[in-house]
Give the backbone structure.
Amino acid sequence: MFLLPVMLLVFSGGSAEVVNDFLNNCPQYFINSITPTILSGNQYKQICQTLDNIQYYATLYDTDNKIPVYSAYNLAARVQCVRLNKWFIEPQLDNYQGSNMERKGKRVLNNQASNKDYEKSGYDKGHLAPVFHAPSQPCAEATFTLTNAAPQLGSFNIQWYHIVEKNMASTVTDHCIKDTAHIVTGVVPGNIKIKNRVRVPSHFWSAYCCKNQTNHLISGGVIGENSQSSTIVQKTVKDLETDLQNGYSVGSFLLFDNNCRYAAYVPVIPK
Ligand SMILES: *[C@@H]1O[C@H](CO)[C@@H](O)[C@H](O)[C@H]1NC(C)=O
């Protein structure tokens, strides 16, 4: 009678990374203790992305659509990383033990996507927190988790890398005080699913906020349709938030605190 609850307590203590509150467990990825909107509903799970007991970024994951809503991370010094292309899953989302991302193994996944869902689907596993922004090799490996990926058309994935990820990195390098840049990258759910399991996003989006060299906050964002010849549109954080509010049909969808929302607009993609 008494053993079971005690055992559960022991197992659920510590650094479990499907968490009840980002701010209690991985506050370092957010500015001024303000997270992007945590959508309400039991399908939305907060994950402090952990590999080998080290945290690397945070993801809000939608277990119904089996794609993330967004990943939040700090863009610091980047390093050249090897792409191992070894994908992890999140044991705790499907009630398996283990606070680290792991290979799927024999686990049955009802609440998240697997590699198999993407096979022959016509879509890439498009990273939200990207390899290109990783500050270390283990961090790059930690971006290869299915909870940080959503179905993305191949040509749009390439565009996203060249136009968004590269420009985001150089904008932050050119304008931000070192280690002050926070990024949130996410999707908007679309109308189709692959394998009748994984929702294909209609859009991918990304935004940053940081302090510039004279200590003023600056911010900017982008959004693009997940289509063959997409146009990536630049937005202020405030206008991107309006798009997301409409895309998610919610009363409000906020990315950062007010100071970032009304900060000076510096476009991600320079003119
Ligand atoms: C930082 O941003 C402020 C507000 O837009 C601007 O006035 C200032 O010139 C910027 N500083 C630098 C070094 O770009």
